[in-house]
């Protein structure tokens, strides 16, 4: 079977789960991962026969995709914010919205040698992106999961940045020096359990629930703890940036103001949803 025919047959196989454009993208990145082929290479090789070995490898991946397993977990990596990062089911797959959060922080902070703290670091994506784009920062990442911290450490090494990773539960006081951080950022669990019914199977069946969900009766649980710790850990005038659930943006804004944060600002994402909050401590 030629490569073109094989690609068409797999687009048909994937049709129950993915539309045509997404299927083409999936097959392209599978071929790039397995063979190192670019889009041009795929076009050039279109009339060549596909080896049985390659068909076997791709068929195995297609079978996993049809079970809604994310391609990032299947391949063991994702491309995000210009970085190739290792991902496993121990960590969330970084989203484009989180890339927006990094851009907001970088655009608003031009000083050198800033001290940055990333709470709920997961794969380390935010910490690593900030370490690479801010001018000479010192970056610390905190997470409760040893498996996540292992992945984060591997990613920092792959991206050639120095980050101090610390195991700690952000719901409890974190053992870090007070009044030490210029920037504190977090993308904590923020999806209410009641929202599970409208979520895709590839998220519910494979991504870590501990990094996604919060109780319906306490949706600001992580933000309340992060706010308290950040007020203690931030320098005077230190900034805090949070990725948030649009459903609770107003409640969270009011809570942060009540906690004593200044200039609490809700920021919309590219889709027009309340997705981020920024604030700073008093000078």
TrEMBL record:
Write the gene name: prmC
Indicate the family of this protein.
Belongs to the protein N5-glutamine methyltransferase family. PrmC subfamily.
Which PANTHER family does the UniProt record give? HEMK METHYLTRANSFERASE, MTRF1L RELEASE FACTOR GLUTAMINE METHYLTRANSFERASE
Single annotated GO MF: nucleic acid binding
Task: Tell me the residue numbers annotated for binding substrate.
Answer: 187-190
Enzyme Commission code:
2.1.1.297
Matching CDD domains: AdoMet_MTases
Main EC class the enzyme belongs to = transferase
UniProt name for this protein: Release factor glutamine methyltransferase
UniProt keyword terms in alphabetical order = Methyltransferase, S-adenosyl-L-methionine, Transferase
Native species of this protein? Duncaniella freteri
**Reactions that this protein is recorded to catalyse:** L-glutaminyl-[peptide chain release factor] + S-adenosyl-L-methionine = N(5)-methyl-L-glutaminyl-[peptide chain release factor] + S-adenosyl-L-homocysteine + H(+)
The record's Gene Ontology biological-process terms are:
methylation
């Amino acid at each position: 079977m030629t490569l073109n025919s094989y690609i068409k047959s797999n687009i048909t196989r994937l049709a129950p789960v993915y539309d045509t454009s997404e299927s083409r993208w999936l097959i392209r990145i599978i071929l790039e991962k397995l063979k190192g082929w670019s889009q041009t290479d795929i076009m050039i090789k279109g009339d060549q026969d596909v080896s049985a070995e390659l068909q076997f490898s791709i068929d195995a991946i297609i079978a996993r995709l049809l079970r809604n397993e994310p391609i990032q977990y299947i391949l063991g990596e994702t491309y995000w914010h210009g970085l190739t990062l290792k991902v496993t089911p121990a960590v969330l797959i970084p989203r484009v919205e989180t890339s927006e959060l990094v851009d907001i922080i970088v655009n608003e902070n031009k000083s050198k040698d800033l001290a940055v703290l990333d709470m709920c670091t997961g794969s380390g994506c935010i910490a690593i992106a900030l370490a690479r784009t801010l001018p000479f920062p010192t970056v610390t990442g905190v997470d409760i999961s040893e498996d996540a911290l292992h992945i984060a450490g591997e990613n920092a090494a792959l991206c050639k940045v120095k980050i101090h990773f610390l195991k700690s539960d952000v719901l409890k006081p974190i053992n870090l020096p007070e009044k030490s951080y210029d920037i504190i950022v977090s993308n904590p669990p923020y999806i209410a359990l009641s929202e599970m019914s409208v979520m895709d199977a590839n998220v519910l069946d494979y991504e870590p629930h501990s990094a996604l969900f919060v109780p319906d009766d306490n949706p600001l649980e992580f933000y309340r703890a992060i706010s308290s710790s950040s007020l203690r850990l931030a320098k005077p005038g230190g900034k805090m940036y949070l990725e948030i659930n649009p459903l609770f943006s107003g409640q969270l804004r009011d809570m942060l103001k009540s906690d004593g944060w200044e200039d609490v600002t809700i920021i919309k994402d590219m889709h027009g949803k309340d997705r981020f909050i920024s604030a700073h401590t008093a000078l």
